[in-house]
């Protein structure tokens, strides 16, 4: 296992992690920002108000994007395990 193979494996692992976590994180940030703007406009300063919409939005995103994200993770894991002999030996 040479340096190029390690770098390619790390690049693919980071790319997969960003692809899987990205939509969920972006949606959570957008919902949090929207709730914060609404709180500022209405002068409601309840700190726990942002958690419920964020949780619901992320759960909705998991239901919506879950099969595609799981497929991406399965493809990465299958590729990793199918080339395991190159990585170990």
Explain the overall architecture.
The protein has one domain. The protein is an all-alpha fold and 89 residues long. The longest helix has 40 residues. It is built from 3 helices and no strands. Helix 1 runs antiparallel to helix 2.
Summarize, please.
By secondary structure, the protein is an all-alpha fold. It contains three helices and no strands. The protein has one domain (3-88).
Give the class from helix and strand content and strand pairing: mainly alpha
How many structural domains can be distinguished in the coordinates? 1
The end-to-end distance, rounded to whole angstroms, is 7 Å
| Low confidence ranges | none
Strand count, sense and barrel status of the largest sheet are: none
Instruction: Kindly report the average pLDDT value.
Output: 91
Which percent band covers the strand fraction? Answer: under 5%
Radius of gyration: 19 Å
The general outline is: elongated
How is the secondary structure organized here?
Elements (H helix, E strand, L loop, with lengths): L2 H40 L8 H32 L1 H5 L1
What labels describe this entry?
89 residues; mainly alpha
């Amino acid at each position: 296992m040479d340096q190029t193979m390690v770098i390619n494996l790390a690049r693919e692992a980071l790319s997969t992690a960003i692809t899987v976590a990205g939509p969920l994180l972006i949606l959570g940030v957008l919902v949090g920002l929207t709730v914060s703007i609404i709180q500022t406009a209405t002068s409601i300063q309840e700190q726990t108000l942002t958690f419920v919409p964020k949780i619901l939005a992320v759960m909705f995103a998991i239901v919506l994007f879950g099969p595609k994200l799981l497929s991406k993770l399965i493809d990465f894991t299958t590729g990793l395990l199918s080339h395991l002999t190159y990585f170990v030996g």
